[in-house]
Design goal:
Blueprint (H helix, E strand, L loop, with lengths): L2 H25 L4 H26 L8 H38 L12 H16 L9 H15 L1
Helix pairs in contact: 2-3, 2-4, 4-5
Length: 156
């Protein structure tokens, strides 16, 4: 392509991104019911996260060093969950705004959060099974097994 064609293509994509951001800003309105739902979702995710973190920290009783557990919990799990929840909820909000604009009637965003039964099943059936028999070094077989099971569960 010529330089002119490349500039036109990037101009179109920048225009589209600008348009999407403007639509997101204009469509982002919160009603009292939305604030109530957001508060409930926040506390639901917080309680699930705290429960799962306490369960992971309970692995100290199975011979896993406390420093290794704290490194995994505060260095990998908490930042990963925080970033995932932020991006996921903004993505679903953006989808709801796009549908509202396209069809002209209000849509709600799918709430995005932690699945409580799956979180505890993951801790006790995967992390504990593989982590109780070895130290949780930053890159250990436990980490790879965990990533494999997360990837597999997302495919289903």
């Amino acid at each position: 392509m010529s330089a002119k064609g490349e500039t036109a293509a990037s101009g179109i994509s920048l225009h589209r991104v600008g348009s999407e951001l403007k639509d997101f800003k204009d469509g982002f309105r919160m009603t009292p019911g939305d604030w109530g739902s957001l508060t409930q979702l926040f506390f639901d995710n917080l309680s699930t996260l705290l429960g799962a973190l306490f369960a992971v920290q309970g692995m100290v009783g199975f011979g896993v060093p406390k420093d290794d557990i704290n490194q995994i919990v505060w260095g990998k799990i908490v930042p990963g969950v925080g970033l995932t929840l932020l991006v996921g909820n903004f993505y679903y909000t953006w989808q709801g705004i796009r549908l509202t604009k396209k069809w002209g009637r209000p849509y709600t965003a799918q709430p995005y959060g932690l699945n409580t039964p799956a979180a505890f099943a993951f801790v006790y059936n995967i992390m504990c099974k593989f982590g109780c028999f070895e130290s949780l070094r930053p890159i250990s077989p436990t980490f790879y097994y965990s990533m494999l099971f997360v990837f597999r569960s997302r495919l289903l």
